[in-house]
Design goal:
Blueprint: H1 25-36, H2 40-51, H3 64-67, H4 70-81, H5 113-117, H6 186-203
Helix pairs in contact: 2-4
């Protein structure tokens, strides 16, 4: 679909649409905030204002992604960017059978260290599949997904700026390192295949 000719925010497109490696909403918003020259939290505040929701005392609008329903949040971002396929980067296709608040995937951040090591600024992204906790391996490298820094063991926040996402929030060590492919059991391979098929259905515009 042709994006709108003028948009409030830069018309940043979602990467990997139509594939099981479609970009996650967390990474998309990190890229969008980078394009806007602002932080993810400040961008979330603008999204809250654009959603038309009234400011509620005691609620920080910079936390719009947790205060707004996932569908309303992505619809507002889509309207502001002129991108009408952003739901493809969520599990909203199955909103009626998934538990509330889970349509964006797990908030536990996981990543493939080899993907981070081979990162290309213009062609790499964090896929939605990494956010599905049942997935055990990277679909590209077949290496086990990590959730802790190799150096200090710290877990990583899911909502970090694009510039800092591939460094540990605690010790600033790189989150990319060499890992050999990990052997998979038949059950693990089956489960990973089901997850990727599930994501493919969500990513189909």
């Amino acid at each position: 679909m042709t994006p709108a000719s003028w948009t409030i925010l830069p018309p940043v497109g979602l990467r990997g649409v139509g594939t099981n490696l479609v970009e996650s909403p967390e990474h998309y918003l990190a890229r969008l905030s980078q394009a806007c020259g602002t932080s993810p939290h400040k961008l979330a505040e603008q999204i809250w204002i654009a959603s038309g929701r009234p400011t509620v005392k005691g609620r920080d609008p910079r936390r719009a992604w947790t205060l707004l329903p996932e569908s309303a949040f992505m619809e507002t971002v889509g309207r502001m960017t002129g991108q009408h396929d952003l739901e493809c980067g969520t599990l909203l296709t199955f909103r009626h059978i998934l538990s509330d608040g889970w349509t964006g995937g797990s908030r536990l951040r996981r990543w493939c260290p080899v993907c981070f090591l081979d990162w290309q600024e213009n062609s790499s992204w964090e896929p939605l599949a990494w956010m599905v906790p049942f997935l055990t391996r990277c679909p590209v490298h077949e290496t086990r997904l990590e959730s802790n820094c190799e150096q200090c063991g710290a877990r990583q926040r899911s909502r970090r700026s694009y510039r800092l996402r591939r460094k540990c929030a605690a010790c600033r060590s790189p989150l990319g390192w060499h890992v050999k492919p990990d052997s998979m059991t038949h059950i693990e391979r089956w489960v990973d295949g089901v997850v990727l098929d599930f994501v493919s259905m969500c990513a189909d515009p």
